[in-house]
Design goal:
This protein is of the alpha+beta class. The chain is built from 3 helices and 7 strands, in the order βααββββββα. Strands 1-2-3-4 form a 4-stranded mixed sheet, covered by helices on one side. A 3-stranded antiparallel sheet has the order 5-6-7, with helices on one face. Helix 1 packs antiparallel against helix 2. The chain starts with a strand and ends with a helix.
């Protein structure tokens, strides 16, 4: 069975620090806030900032099955190249039947994820994350 990589953005302070550090590198490198004798140093600093940004935003593509969420919504990528973005306040109902997760949005759109190759513990965790955050928004 395949595993899902779960990434909670609310609790991952390391990644938030990397993102802030990359922004600082970009600002220092682009606007040349620190004068160096060699002008190529500013270009290298901004290059490091761009590299950190690329690493931060490419995490979704490192794993075949990936869930990234915060208190507002989630990006679910299961057996596909691009993920589906879901806002928790737009989810009306969720059903987990026969290894298929069916999510109904408030506008009537239905999103179905096929979880037949995913471990049972990960399917339950995915459903719990969606239900917990959806109920929290309606209370």
């Amino acid at each position: 069975m395949k595993k899902i990589h779960f990434d909670n953005l609310n609790k991952n302070w390391f990644l938030i620090t990397v993102l802030i550090l990359s922004i600082i590198f970009l600002l220092v490198g682009i606007f040349e806030l620190i004068p160096f004798e060699n002008p190529k140093i500013n270009k290298r600093i901004s290059g490091v900032g761009f590299l950190l940004q690329a690493l931060f935003f490419s995490r979704m593509f490192w794993y075949k099955n990936y869930i990234q969420w915060n208190k507002k919504g989630a990006v679910i990528r299961i057996n596909s190249l691009l993920g589906k973005s879901l806002s928790f306040d737009q989810i009306k109902t969720t059903e987990l039947n026969e290894k298929k997760l069916k999510i109904t949005k408030t506008n009537g759109e239905i999103v179905i994820f096929d979880l037949k190759e995913i471990a049972e513990s990960d399917t339950q965790k995915l459903n719990e994350i969606i239900v917990k955050n959806t109920i929290a928004n309606t209370v």
